[in-house]
Amino acid sequence: PDYLRWRYWSLLGKSCSASDRLEEAAEAFGSAVALAVGDERDRERLQLAGTLLELSRPEAALAVLRRTDSA
Q1: pLDDT tens-digit profile of 40-70?
Q2: 27 CB-near residues (< 8 Å, 6+ apart)
Q3: Global pTM?
């Protein structure tokens, strides 16, 4: 169903992250953020920020975290 589409992207992101495919993980988490709602969106933003930090992209991670904080 449409309301769970974000979950596909979340699980894909986690799978890619566990396989050290961090660029793909970041893209998947970004899609999850775009589709999730409410508290789930904040959780996905945290996943995305963590992945960006692993990719040595702290400024991008900060931008994601600021959106979480202000949402």
Answers
A1: 999 999 999 999 999 999 999 999 999 865 5
A2: 13
A3: 0.90
37 alpha-carbon distance from chain centroid:
13
- From CA 12, how far away is CA 66, in angstroms rounded? 24
Interatomic CA distance for residues 17 and 68, integer angstroms = 21
Q: Would you call 33 exposed, middle or buried from its count of C-beta atoms within 10 A (0-12, 13-18, 19+)?
A: buried
* 3-state DSSP of 3-22: HHHHHHHHHHHHHHHHCCCH
